Structure formats: C-alpha cells, structure tokens
Amino acid sequence: MKVQAQEEWDLEIQPKNKLFDLQLKEVWHYRDLMWLFVKRDFVAQFKQTILGPLWHVIQPALTTMMFLLVFGKIARIPTDGIAPAAFYMAGLTIWNYFAACLTGTSGTFTANASIFGKVYFPRIVMPLSVVISNMVKFAIQFALLIIVMVYYHFNGYPIQLSANLLFIPFIVLLMAGIGLGLGIIISSVTTKYRDFAVLLSFAVQLLMYATPVIYPLSYLQGKSFRWLVDINPLSPVVESFKYVLFSKGYVDPLHMLYSIIFMLLSVGIGYIIFNRVEKSFMDTV
Amino acid sequence: MGVAIKVENLSKQYRLGKIGTGSIAHDLNKWWHTVRGKENPYLKIGETNDRSTKGNSDYVWSLKDINFEIEQGDAVGIIGRNGAGKSTLLKILSRVTGPSTGSVKVKGRIASLLEVGTGFHPELSGRENIFLNGAILGMRKAEIKKHFDTIVDFAGVERYIDTPVKRYSSGMYVRLAFAVAAHLESEILIVDEVLAVGDAEFQKKCLGKMNDVSKGEGRTVLFVSHNMASIRNLCSSGIILQNGMVRYSGNIENCIEDYTKLDIENGDYNKKHVIIDDSYRRFFASHERNIDFLSVEILNKSLNNALATNEDIILEIKIKSVKDIDGCRIAVGVNNINDTPCGVHFSEQNIEVKANEVQKLKVIFKDHQLAKGKYYFDFSIGKGNQIEGFKDFDIIHKTIFFEIAYSDIESKQMIPIWHSSWGNINFQNIEITQN
C-alpha cells in the first residue's frame, strides 16, 4: 500500500526528454504566460514613444514607397496589372510577418538565457508568444493594406471580392508555421555554435529576393533561374496571398502542397530538436 | 507524510574551456557513440570539482552520485562552500538544466526562486509586472488576481503600483519581486540566497514569511544559504555538499557543526594574518572604493587564535587610500561562526589617511566579555553617520577567525561548556548584592 503510493510521482527529471514527449499539457498550463509575453512585447516596444503603435504602419509605408521608386520606376518590374503600391505592400506585409517570426524565434535561447537560467517554464511558450505578437503587428499592417486597396478601388483598380479571401487565415498560419519551425531549429542549433545566427542576419534579406515579393511569379516565365524561386517553399505562400487579395497571379496546387508539407516537417522537426535542447542548453549557451 | 523529493544517483558533468572548433570534435565523437548505441565516452572521465587545483581533464563533475530523500513538509538547508555544487543541484531541481545521469522524482508542484524578479520588465508598471512575474513562476492568472491585494500590501508599494518599475528604488523593486514569489501556491519551494537583499526590516519579514511557508502550510522548502543563522532559524534538517558529493545529511544542528569543521579543515580558521582580496568584499558593491583594506593581523601570541576570556584581543589593520581623507572612522564587527552578529564598535571620526600611503591601525578589544565559542571579525571604513548621511569606503567580511577557549590568559583553565542558546556574551561586570 505504502509502496504503491510512493511510486506515483508528478514529475521525473531525467537526463533527456523523451523524443516525442511534447509536454502539451504543461504548455496549456502556461497559456496565461504566453498572452502576458505577447502583451509585454507589444506594450514595452513603444513605451516612451509619441507615435506608439503607429510605427508599425510607418515602416511598411516607407518601404513600399522605396520599392515603388526602385523596382517600379527604375527597374520597371511589372506587377501583374495590380496597383503597384498595393502589390508591394501586400508582398511586404506577408513577408514581414515571416521575417519577424523567423528572426524573433531564432534567438529564443540566446536572447532569453537570463530568464531561462533562473526559472523553468516550457520554453516553447517563448517562440509561440513571438509568433502571436507578430500576428498582432501583421493585423495592423493588413489594415493599412486594406486602406490602400480601398483607395485604389476608387482610382482605377477596382477590388474584386471573392470567396478566396477566406483562405487568408490559412495562409497566415502557413507562414507562421514555416517561420516558427525554421526559427526554433536555428535557435536550437545556435545555442552551442553561433554560426547560424550570423548567417541568418543577412540570409533573410537575400531570401526575400528569391520569393515573389517584389515581382509576380508570371514575370519569371521561361527564365533560367526560375527553379530557385520554385524550390523556395515561401514562394507559393506569398503568391497565393496576393492571389486571394487581387485575384491575379498563378498558384499551383502541387506547389502549395509542397509548402504545407515543408511547414509540417519544419514545425515537427523543430519541436523535437527544441525539446531536446531545452534540457541542456543552459550549459552551453 | 510521504517523500516529496527523491534524488537518485544524480550527477552533472560540465565541460571546461572554450566552445569552438575544438569542441566540435568531441561533439561528433559523442554523437558517433550514440549512433552505435554505446555510452557517452566522456561520462567515464572527469574529475571531482576542486576549483583550486588545476586538473588534467576538460571535464569536471559538479555533482557526483548524489542520493537523498526529502520528506513532505520538511525545511531543508543546503549548505556548502562556493563551488560545492549547491547551485547546480538547485538548477537541476528547478529544471533549468538537466542532469548528466541519474534522476529526480518529485511529488507536487515545484516553484523555484533562484533570483527575485526574474522577467521583470523595466518599462512595465508594478501591476503588469506582478502578473508577468507570477505567470513566469507558474501561477495562473486567476491565482495572481486572488493574491493581488496581499502581494501589493506585503511589498508596501501601493502608491507606485501603476508606475514603471524602472522608477522604483532598488529596495522597492526587490520587495515587490519577493512579494510575488512569497505568494506562490506550490507544494515545494526552492529558495536560493535571495534574502541577502533588501533592508533589515524586510529581510525579517521575508524570513518570517518563509517560516510560515514551511511550518504553517506544510510545504516542503529547500533553502540554500551561506548564513548559518538564517539556516538554523528556518530549517529542521540539512544537507552538506562538498566537492559535488553529499558529505553529511541530517539534523540541522549537527549539519552546522559539521560545516564549521569544514571551515576549519580548509585552513581559513586559524590564520593569524589575512591579506585582503576581493573575495572578502562579497557584500560591498559601491564603486567608490577610495580606501582599501590591505591586511588584518591578530597580534596575540596564541596557538590557533585560541584566546582567553580575560585576554585583550589585539589586531593590526593596514589600509591604503587613493586620496587624502580626514575624519574617517572604522567599524569592527564580531560575529559568531554561525553568522550571528554579536556586536559592532564604531571608532571616533579621527582617522586621517594620506594618498598612497600605507597606514597601520591598532585595535585593542579590552574586556570583550565574549562567551566560549568561535568568532570572526568584519571591518568597514567610512565617514559620517546615519543622520547626516554616511559613506563606506571599504567593507570586508569574515576576515580573522578566533576562538574563546580559556578562562585564563595562561591557557590552563579550559571553559567547560557554553550552551549556544545562552547567546554570545558572558557578562562580567555585573554586581549582585544581597541584603
């Protein structure tokens, strides 16, 4: 009787987590913490600024203007008959979300070492909160995009509403998944060897040019380097985002499936590696 | 009552030195062994963790085959010198890092306080930080809401609750942080030396709160401290770690006695002449250290600093200043070896120091009235007083150790027994008349 009672433990600390023990119950217990991190990120970022969250709008607005100038006026890259400002802003909005998720989550272990070194909570809470708080920023930028689209609606580029718009949440989740998956893989790998962190700092920028952000996929028809954009799992996501908004462009379902599989794999592998590393990273970080 | 924590064959290995191209070869080798289903080759080597001697291996065992059990509702002190493995043990128990081998089994929820105010964000208000910090420590929002008023009250920061914590004084900050932690609802609480902060009044409040936690609410508490007095106050049993191994575990009085022996074995105890380095300045954080204590020497001619009750204690202190300062005073504190303070003497403010000159001060304790026991000296040098404001130029802690062992200066008559509950002063100049 007594022996049996002794064997019921609430927690066992072992040298390594089991490979597929994803601790989902624990993550659920800490859901309040996740929301508080989201709130902290959002509130703390713009304390003691006058414009506050308006900065989330100013940044894409200025970038769009610069793109208009460089890629529209100087390089004269076509925009598939979409209002150039709306075209660039749509690409930027979804791309920024990916870039923010990736860079935000890739520093999980190194940036939070001081908290992680003092207290335990499921580490995955941190990157999840990054993805969510970037979703809020995405929503703000998306609102700006809608305003721009409405403006062009009355200035020669009428909006065609379609049922495809319902795919937007799905596209955003796909983007979040890829960003999170790659981010936590990089964060796990960089705890010991920082090389990837250096790579990431410029790789994200380069990757943008291999993604149809500033040009439509149709522009690459018959070009020799088309494969570079095709193997990029982000291409169909960005292209489909534009497609559901403007009903222009080309999305290949097989290409889309490739992105979805890539997302599932990166999240799955990422979570497993992350779970492994969270036990020992404090010794090497 | 059952067992709350069961630690079995727990070991933790660390790799010393830099991480870079050199360590990748070891990593690959380790990986190759795992792939072939063999044991990690580096777990077979490694040395005990003795900081002071240079070892031959890059791997050291910070903890080696630790075994113990802690009963539910116990308050256990974890004692050991720096580098004995206390912090590593706490880190493993609070799941900050994993063990290399072995396991820990736990019944109940663990909350650990390795630091107060983990995750406090300077830009957020006190209110927001209470929720954030509480959630980091594992509380649900509803739990924090329930305790919110008592937390604010305990910290005494009601007025500032909506001000960003970066505007708080350091005392307020610590009080708020501790208040959150003190209201954790967990079955097991792990506390590192966080009580070494805050003013005396608040420290007392914290100690009181910790006491409530272990004695009143039936919680299990693990407490790490260097301060034997607070360990004795709080804990019923103790575990002494030495070089990553359990040296002793059991009743707290025996633990403290054993630990003081450890101090003696390590030779700090009977030094007659101590050269002061920064390890003696653990509690001194000021950046304006204009005067340095250089050395402290006990001039009494006695074996192992064993003195008599009627013997004057004679000390010589050397100090050196970076600039001319007039009107300094020094303070000499005497503490029992279990860290209970016995008293302090403040000198007149008449010490003059000249820049870059070594000065000698002689301190004579006449008629000290200290009871049989072991003690050590603390010193500080500074200026001013509590009313007009004061400034410390240097503070040194645990310098010279000595023992009051004899009742006569010829060291013939040993003092038989002095019970520790009688205190540290054996009053001498008291007149009792019968009429």
UniProtKB/TrEMBL annotation, chain A:
Broad class of the protein's primary localization: membrane
Cellular localization per UniProt: Cell inner membrane; Cell membrane
Source organism superkingdom: Bacteria
All copies of domain ABC transmembrane type-2, residue ranges: 51-277
GO CC list: plasma membrane
Stretches that traverse the bilayer: 54-74, 94-116, 128-154, 166-189, 196-215, 256-274
InterPro entries the record matches: ABC2_TM, ABC2_TM_bact-type
Keyword Transport attached: yes
Entry's Gene Ontology molecular function annotations: ABC-type transporter activity
Keyword list, A-Z: Cell inner membrane, Cell membrane, Membrane, Transmembrane, Transmembrane helix, Transport
Membrane-topology annotation of the record: Multi-pass membrane protein
Entry-linked Pfam families: ABC2_membrane
GO terms, biological process: lipopolysaccharide transport
Family: Belongs to the ABC-2 integral membrane protein family.
Protein name: Transport permease protein
From TrEMBL, chain B:
Residue span, ABC transporter domain: 43-268
Keyword Transport belongs to the record: yes
Coiled coil: none
GO molecular function: ABC-type transporter activity; ATP binding; ATP hydrolysis activity
Domain of life: Bacteria
Record-linked SUPFAM superfamilies: P-loop containing nucleoside triphosphate hydrolases
Keyword annotations from UniProtKB, A to Z: ATP-binding, Nucleotide-binding, Transport
Protein's name according to its UniProt entry: ATP-binding cassette domain-containing protein
Entry-linked Pfam families: ABC_tran (PF00005), Wzt_C (PF14524)
InterPro entries: AAA+_ATPase, ABC_transporter-like_ATP-bd, ABC_transpr_TagH-like, Bact_Polysacc_Export_ATP-bd, P-loop_NTPase, Wzt_C
GO cellular component assignments: membrane
SMART domains given in the database record: AAA
